[in-house]
Amino acid sequence: MFITATNPSEFAASLNHIGIHYTIGYAVALALRYIPDVRNDFVKIRNAQEARGMEMSRKAPFMTRIRYIETIPRIQ
To answer: Whole-prediction pTM value?
Structure first.
């Protein structure tokens, strides 16, 4: 909820106001902004992997899910 309800510029300004350097505050604010996008991409990839027959839901054993998550390509 915090990530979706917070304006990154206002968050960076508030971090700067409490004494954190503005470049660090802005970097943190931008990183928080992209968390929902990364989560949505992960959900799409997980659904595609399940369509290919790799069980990634809670029904599969934990170690099996970890092995299948390792097969998801990383962005270079």
So the answer is: 0.56
